[in-house]
Amino acid sequence: MMIKQIKTPRQFSFVVALILALLSISVSLFVQFLFEHSISFLRLIIVGSICFLLSYFVIHYFLEKLITSKIRLLYRVIHSNEDRSVAIDLKMENDVLGEAEREVMSWGKEKREQIEKLKVQEEFRREFLGNLAHELKTPIFSIQGYILTLLEGGLEDEKINRKFLERANKGVDRIAKVVEDLDLITEIESGRITLKLQSINIVELVQDVLDSFEIKANRKDVKLILNADYESLNVLCDRDKIEQVLINLINNSINYGKKDGFTKVNLLDMEGHVMIEVEDDGIGISSKDQERLFERFYRVDKSRARHEGGTGLGLSIVKHIIEAHQQTISVRSQIGKGAIFYFSLKKA
Ligand code: ADP
């Protein structure tokens, strides 16, 4: 009970010195009684006081030396990345051991969290490299196949030489697109890209991007609709980057939309913001897939997505660009009922 209440080295020295003093008084009492048959209280008090003071200072001195040397080492290990010359102030009237225990516990917790984070990063890195290798493998093997056929005599065959070269070139284009997309993501992630914010008319920009998809949409009989009650709505953004976002979203809505369907861009004037929605009536996305959609290389239907010419990086780029504008992008969708991707931009 008593031991539990002792918190500081000073209290410990005091209690032990007191016990030793009481012991010395008892021994002295016994000796006086045995050999002198009389008791001198003055001598008892002197013996007790000397014993108390001596024990107190000796115990305190060695305890301080021991604790300081051990705990200093502990603190040095814990704060290894900090300046070693900083003096660690250990006061014996404080609960130094308790404090050290708490420090070690929180250090341990921090380390455990760091390890967890590293494990997640490691997993992410492994998955990323696997995806990248997989992504590049298909076009590389197809290019290799065409080149080998050409080398083994195809070059002289008028019927196939041009066709095979064009196909090989398509493969090269695909690799270039993956590398370009990855490069853009890395640039935004590393903060190397600074947004060139300017005031632009978002109605005009959306109309321009929709116009650029006319041929592709016609081929699939997809109707392109701009749904805005305004001629002009000015937002603050990096024009090229937001154009890229609109291209990726509208391109997806046509790719994963249905024949004879529609792609609609809704512009809504909110207080201080403009909400931009890209809507389609296509195949839709399950809620399970919606959670992972913005990850690099994530695809719902692998074969279909690749067939549509996507790299699996489009939405990841979109997310990075919107987040660089300090906004968020979300999706509402149900399987078979189309999808709506929406984000906001600050009004200029
Ligand atoms: P991809 O290059 O494969 O299109 P994205 O990152 O743009 O890559 O999209 C990731 C996946 O999300 C796509 O493969 C597709 O499965 C799904 N997806 C994206 N947009 C839509 C949409 N409008 N409707 C249905 N699925 C979509």
Please provide a written account of the structure.
The chain is of the alpha+beta class and 348 residues long. The chain contains eleven helices and seven strands. Strands 2-4-5-7-6 form a five-stranded mixed β-sheet. It has a two-stranded antiparallel ribbon with strand order 1-3. Strand 4 (262-269) and strand 5 (273-280) form a beta hairpin. Helix 4 runs antiparallel to helix 5 (161-189). The chain starts with a helix and ends with a strand. 20% of the residues are buried. Bound molecules: adenosine-5'-diphosphate.
Beta strands, count: 7
Poorly predicted ranges: none
- Mean pLDDT across the residues is 91
Relative helix content = 55-70%
Give the spatial strand order of the biggest sheet: 2-4-5-7-6
Indicate the radius of gyration in whole angstroms. Answer: 38 Å
Hetero ligands: adenosine-5'-diphosphate
Strand content: 5-15%
For the largest beta-sheet, the strand count, sense and barrel status come to: 5 strands, mixed
How many angstroms separate the termini?
70 Å
Q: List the secondary-structure elements in sequence, H or E.
A: HHHHHEHHEEHEEHHHEE
What would you call the shape?
elongated
* Class per helix and strand makeup: alpha+beta
Number of helices: 11
Helix/strand layout:
Layout: H1 2-5, H2 9-36, H3 41-78, H4 96-151, H5 161-189, E1 197-201, H6 202-212, H7 214-219, E2 223-227, E3 234-238, H8 239-255, E4 262-269, E5 273-280, H9 287-292, H10 302-307, H11 314-324, E6 329-333, E7 339-346
Parallel strand pairs: 2-4
Antiparallel strand pairs: 1-3, 4-5, 5-7, 6-7
The structure holds adenosine-5'-diphosphate.
